[in-house]
Amino acid sequence: MNWDNDGDILAMITPNSNSVLLWECHANKCLSIETGLREPPSCIAWAHGEPLLAVATIKGNLALYNHHTTKRIPIIGKHTKKITCAAWNKDNILVLASEDKSLSINNSDGDTLRVVALRDLPNDLQFSEMKTDERIAGENTVCEFGCGKRTLYLYNLLNPENPIELAFQQRYGSIVTYKWYGDGYILIGFSAGFVIAVSTHIKEVGEELFQVKNHKDNLTDVAICNSLGQAATCGDGQLKLISIWDNGEVTSSVTPAGGAERCAWSSDGRLLAAAGRAYLSVYVSALTPLYSAYGTRAVTLTSLIEATIYQCVAVGEDTENISKEPSALGMLVLPAEPTLLALGASHVCCVSGAHAWYQSIAGGAPHRRQYPAPLSAVRMATEYAAVLYQGRAMLHTVGRVESQPDRDSIQFPEPRTRTASIVDIHLTADFFIFATDEGDVEFFAVEEWNMAARYRHSCGVRSLHGDVAGTRVVIVDVKRRGHVYSPLTDHVLPIDEFPPNTNIIKLPLESHNTSGLADADGEKRAASQRKHVEKLLALRRFADVWIYCDALDDVDLWRRAGEVAIANLDVEFAIRVYTRLNDVSMVWALEDALEVEELALLCGTLCACLNRGEAAARWFEGAGARGAAYALELHAARGDWPRAAELAATAAPDRLHEITLHRADNLELTADYHEALANYEKSLIKENIDDPKVKEHNTKCEAGIARTAIRCGDVVRGVTTAMKHANDLNLLKDCAQFLEDDNQSTHAASLYEHAGDFEKAASLYIKLKSWLKVETLLPKLNSPSIHIQYAKAKESEGRYNEALKSYLKAQDFESAIRVNLECLEDIDDAVRLVQETKSVHGARMVADYFQKSDDTTSAIKFLVMSLCYDEAFQLARKNGKLQLYGEILIQTSQVRPEDFKSLALHFEGERNYLLAGKFYFHANEYGKAMTHLLKAGGSEEQENDAISIAIDAAAACDDDRLTKRLIEFLLGETDGAPRDPRHLFRLYMAKKQFTEAAKTAVIIGQAECRAGRYREARDVLRSMCGGLRARGLRAPHDMSRALQLLHTYALVRMHVKRRRHDLAARLLNRLATDVEFFPDQQRQLQFYYFRRPNELAYHQSRQLAHEHSLPQRSHGALSVSWVNIGCLMEGECATETLTNWTKRNNGSCYFRSVFCESVVFDGLSRPTFVMQPSRQQHSAIILKYDQVSILTSAVIECSRAGLKHAAHRWARELMRPEYRPQIDAKYVKKIESVVRHAVREAAPAEPTAPCPQCSAPVPIADLHCTHCKLLLPFCLATGLHIEKEDLTSCPECDFPAIMTEFME
Predict the structure, then answer these.
(1) Rounded distance, CA 87 to CA 104, Å?
(2) Which residue ranges does the record assign to the IF140/IFT172/WDR19 TPR domain (predicted)?
(3) d(Cα 1181, Cα 1165) in Å, to the nearest integer?
């Protein structure tokens, strides 16, 4: 098959027929043409310039058929074998290739021009223009491939004897097809799936431009679309598109139904067809650019029968979120493939030939309309549409308007101009405009439905272009000249330098030029927009002005827009502008101007707003009586008092006095006092003086008279007039100030005193030396300067007590101290003042006084207060009072570290290690301080002081080595003499090592318990628990348990004294349950030291332990250190770290941890002896135990409280052999009676209270909740567990308590 050049006729041949079938597509008829040859045809080809068909046969013959003339020319013997391919070039040269390996070049008449021998069988022929250094017009190159379809030959028609041979690699496979494209390039498809591009330029021949393997297994066809710059390839059942100008990059891929074996583009490149097994698939590759715009919207064709509507500019509430890209509003499915598109306010028009469909944007079925002929133009606006067809136009409604049935449609031109042909149309919301080829431009008013304007141009019109409103159109005539026509003025303006060959008319006037408004450079864009705003202001397009001013946001530009709006009487827009500027006063003034109806008054008011006073006055003065009142206010506001007075005398006599008063005020401000005085006198009103308004007016006038009279030198009149208005304090102060400036101090002081300004009055009285006046004013004064002046005067008179009082009131303490020392010799009062005021200079004076009095101690103290450290040091050193000097320095806040260091060096030289370490500590040299403090000996008090300072030094520095040294010293590892564990506890607290401090506190508490000092043990543990809680840390279980038992022990006695035996009994139950916590009895135990471990020592020690009958559950292991011997604490592990008694102090036991060299185990695998080399000695230790007394108290209180079961239980416990001998004799019978008379009934239920955590009932004296498994806090006042609903805390220690019990 082969189409002719115009695409109207399709020629077809079949292998079993000698004829050629021709199908005319437009007429839809088929013709059978006889070639005049007896054999079947083998190939056909249409010529380019005319409908000439070449038909070649299998025997090498040729027939030429002209479809216009139906003439056939058979040519016998063109080739000896089958002609396989034929091709025409644009010059109607026919080239035939045959299986006889020859190539014949023929003209359009069939004459052979040249025969070229080939090297192999040809497969395909194509004409194109080969790239050469010197271009020759026309298609001069024939390309064919052969040699097993692996070689491409290029024949130049001018030199066919020297072809160019292009051979390709074997891996590419055989050549399937090739296509010419661009400026002499060839795209070749190979069977192995490769696509290669080569150039035919003589310098580039043999070089591959790009090579891609587009298909994996095979390639069957290639098609090129030069307009799109793309090529389509078929293979592996796929259709792929590649870019021929981007190195063959694959742009898209698709798998058609039935696969893809052949492909072809339409002539315009819009369609791509792919043929496969029993399927033909057609794809849209490009769309006709159809679009239309209306207002801020645009519609464009996005598929063959789909259109998309875009919002190009944000409107309404969306203006705040303006996007650079248009946003899609929706997609419409069109009823047919359109040739034209048009967009209106609410419809989209789709045109196909003579049919048009009007589809609502909101949705619904489209409205179809048929026209007499195919449409060439469509315009839409509001509910109307205008169409152009065959030189005629029609205006009609989109749908039917029921209220105006006569406006359904109208045709143009009118009958009187039937000969004219319409060439262009334009439609706006108000006008339908069309132009004819005879030069008529007519405006049809849509609202009135008749012609509104007509213009006759000098020659025919080619096209017209109107603005949005239709008030201006650009006319392009047949001479390609441009004119601007305005129907409002019926004026035509020619456009200079109008481009003659332009097709798009968009030439704005200079006032409408918008170039540069979207410049990428921000500064240039802003400058262009500012110029454009000036143009818009000249055109009074205030809506557009707002948009650009909002984008620029320039205050000056906003103000300029507001002024222009006011000048054009657009008050509402001006209010918007000044509201944006936050100019409240201007907005209020303009809102008042909105109420003015008379033009003259409105213009005058707006001129006043623009600060054009003279123009405003002219407008007001020409507006009659109301205008005169406005003019009077204007002159008064501008300060033009002469014109105001002149106008008031004629137009408003009742305001003459007021204007005169204002004029006098203005003259006074300009220092024209004589003229001001005359105007004040003239403005006095002498009629109706009892009227309140008149009185107020005359008061202002007399005040002005008083001021100006003083200014003019008439002091007596001014003072007399001012005193008439003594209640006007400001007037009195002003007059007094004027008199003071004129050196009239007496009158000035008197007026100040009457005005209540006592300070200035007293200052003038002091200047006049009127001391009696000053003394009367002193109680009313607070100014230090006045009191100081008075004090100096009294001091010079020798009245020192009065001077001292004034100095103190003025807070001149240095002078007061000086008077006490030098005049009154009151050293006690001077010292008190120095200590209260911390006066450095005063301290120096007191120090000098004490030095003269040989009171060295006081002198040193006050020298330090006066910051004379060096002098104080020398004085203390001279008198041997450096320790006193150091203590004073410690209490001083502004001391230097060097001063402490000098003291430390002095005491270091005297080997006073305590003071040297102390002052090194205050000098921030902690290492030296620690060294000297640990050397300090002497009394126990001095050692404790040194340890306290060392603890402070360790806490102040971050050096762990110093802390380690101090701990070793406290444990006795340096000198074998361990110190009081309280020091270790204080060190841990100072270092914020709360875990170690808690362990130490538990040890101290246990030691206090063994000594019988339960209250002291309780206080230590409570303070530690409070410290941990304050820092958000949880107290260890051992500490909490010890504190609970000790506090319970303390509460028992209180409850017994208050006769609350029930609480005492329940708390004693708790103590009796944990009675092992308390000592059992008082017993003296002696332990002996041994020099080396041996069996004798082992047996003697075990015998010694049994002889002293250690109580049950007591500590069963003994240990020996190089100092003395002691017991293991209950619960400690049998490791090499043991806890030993290291100090005896009134029977109290203290502990430390040591490293032991050897451990001997008994049969229970527990450490029994720890022995180290030591001299043989023995030691006695006294223990106090209270377990029997606790159990006895529990029996007695439980009996009193009626808790018989508990009393019986603890009585039985006391009858045990280890407890019975220790029972007090007076309670023995009572306890034995309780044991004998056991209670037979069941024990009553314990009273409960809700758990503060889970609200489960818990016995009030239990501190463990069996439901939530938590340890409950106990009440500070009762010892019971707390209740969430009745909770408080102690203000001193912050421990919880039951509120009602705590308050009681």
Answers:
(1) 11
(2) 773-880
(3) 26
Burial pattern 612-639, b for ≥16 Cβ within 10 A else e, equals eeeebbbbbbebeeebbbbbbebbbebe
CA distance 876 to 891: 16
Contact 506, 476 (CB under 8 A): no
Contact 288, 301 (CB under 8 A): yes
Write down the pLDDT at residue 1137.
30
- The contacts of residue 965 (CB under 8 Å, 6+ apart) are 930, 934
Helix or strand or coil: residue 385? strand
Q: Nearest to residue 742, comparing CAs of 718, 720, 724?
A: 718
**Separation CA 1121–CA 233 (nearest Å):** 102
What the block records as the tokens of 626 is 């109301």
Residue 1108: predicted pLDDT: 33
How far apart CA 552 and CA 529 sit, in angstroms, is: 8
Do 505 and 474 contact (CB within 8 A), yes or no? Answer: yes
Residue 351, pLDDT > 90, answer yes
C-alpha 711/C-alpha 435 separation (Å) is 86
Q: How would residue 131 be classed by pLDDT, with cut points 50, 70 and 90?
A: low
Quote the tokens at residue 910.
């005297």
Question: How far apart (Å, rounded) are the C-alpha atoms in residues 613 and 592?
Answer: 18
DSSP letters spanning 1109-1125? TPPTTS---EEE-SS-E
The helix (run of H) or strand (run of E) holding residue 292 is strand 291-294
- Kindly report which listed range (777-781, 854-858, 923-927) carries the lowest average pLDDT score: 777-781
* Residue among 437, 331, 338 at smallest CA distance from 378: 338
Question: What is the mean pLDDT of the segment spanning 866-884?
Answer: 76
| CB of 1154 closer than 8 Å to CB of 1169 | no
At 1145-1181, the pLDDT tens digits run 333 333 333 333 333 333 323 333 333 333 333 333 3
Q: What angle in degrees, to the nearest 10, is found between the helix axes of 1037-1057 and 994-1010?
A: 40
SS3 474: strand
Tell me the H-state helices in 923-1035.
926-935, 940-956, 960-970, 981-990, 994-1010, 1014-1030
User: How is residue 1053 written in tokens?
Assistant: 């006695």
* Inter-CA distances, 1125 with 725, 822, 978, 1089, 1178, Å: 103, 72, 14, 8, 9
Quote the radius of gyration of the chain (alpha carbons, Å). Answer: 61
What are phi and psi for residue 712, nearest 5 degrees?
Answer: -85, 0
Spatial distance between the Cα atoms of 926 and 289, rounded to a whole number of angstroms:
90
Q: Spell out the residues 6+ positions from residue 298 whose beta carbon is closer than 8 angstroms to its own.
A: 291, 292, 309, 310, 312, 326, 343
Question: In whole angstroms, what is the distance from residue 396 CA to residue 746 CA?
Answer: 101
- pLDDT recorded at residue 503: 56
- For residue 331 the two structure tokens come to 């997609």
List, in sequence order, every beta strand (DSSP E) within 335-376: 340-343, 347-352, 355-360, 367-370
pLDDT for 63 equals 93
Q: Tell me what the mean pLDDT of segment 262-287 comes to.
A: 87
- Regarding pTM above 0.85, the answer is no
Whether 930 and 920 have beta carbons less than 8 Å apart is answered as no
Burial readout 1024-1060 (b: 16 or more C-beta within 10 A, e: otherwise): bbbbbeeeeeebbebbbbbbbbbbbbebbeebbeeeb
Residues 1178 and 1087 sit within 8 Å (Cβ to Cβ):
yes
- Look up residue 1172 and give its two tokens: 């180290």
Asked if pLDDT for residue 795 goes beyond 60, the answer is yes
Confidence (pLDDT) at 539:
82
